[in-house]
Amino acid sequence: ASPTATSPKLETTTTSDVPNGTYSATGKLVLPHSVNADDVWDMLLDYERSSDIFHNIEEAVVMHDESRNQKQLVEQCRWVFLVFSGTFELLLDVDENVSERVLTFSLGKPGAFMQAFEGRWQVMTADDGQAVVAHTLTVRPSLPPPALVSGYTEAVFERQVKRVMEDLRNALL
């Protein structure tokens, strides 16, 4: 069924590569015709306002690594796992492909929690004119979770993508 102006469609899926320790979750959001794809793209590029949009970001600061001619983003992020929670700083390299409306964040340097991280956003206009947003989160934790909680870990990443997509949807509508 096609989403109506009041009910955008959100789908998420998760995969994991246990031997490699990598988890990947993808979300796709089809927005009502009242939302323009350019407005979605502009919102994603407004990094310093991301803490007003996304629940898991407390603060974001744009920087530039002159030695590599690389735009970077420093984020203070919230995390929750089982009964534990806290914040951590994340240094991300930012790649903006404006012509394709693809935005990629990758881990600037591995940290205590993550060996690898990539967040990829793509904003498209469907044939019927609706804005469609795809988001993929790929993470390789520094320490693989114990086998007993690996299924839970996979669900955490899928839930993270779903919540981020819901945050974006709520900010747009």
In words, what does this structure look like?
This protein is an alpha+beta fold and 173 residues long. It has one domain: START domain (Alpha-D-Glucose-1,6-Bisphosphate, Chain A, domain 4). Helix content is 21%, strand content 47%. The protein is globular, with a radius of gyration of 16 Å.
Please describe the structure with a list of short key phrases separated by commas or semicolons.
alpha+beta; disordered N terminus; 3 helices; Alpha-D-Glucose-1,6-Bisphosphate, Chain A, domain 4; globular; eight-stranded antiparallel beta sheet; 173 residues
Q: Would you identify the regions where 5 or more consecutive residues have pLDDT less than 50?
A: 1-6
Shape: globular
Give the CATH topology.
Alpha-D-Glucose-1,6-Bisphosphate, Chain A, domain 4
Distance between the termini: 20 Å
What radius of gyration results from the CA coordinates?
16 Å
Pfam families: Polyketide_cyc
InterPro entries: COQ10_START, START-like_dom_sf
Domain Coenzyme Q-binding protein COQ10 START: 35-165
Protein name: Coenzyme Q-binding protein COQ10 START domain-containing protein
Write the layout of secondary structure elements.
Layout: E1 9-17, E2 22-30, H1 37-45, H2 50-53, E3 57-65, E4 70-81, E5 84-97, E6 102-107, E7 114-125, E8 131-141, H3 150-172
Protein name: Coenzyme Q-binding protein COQ10 START domain-containing protein
Domain Coenzyme Q-binding protein COQ10 START: 35-165
InterPro entries: COQ10_START, START-like_dom_sf
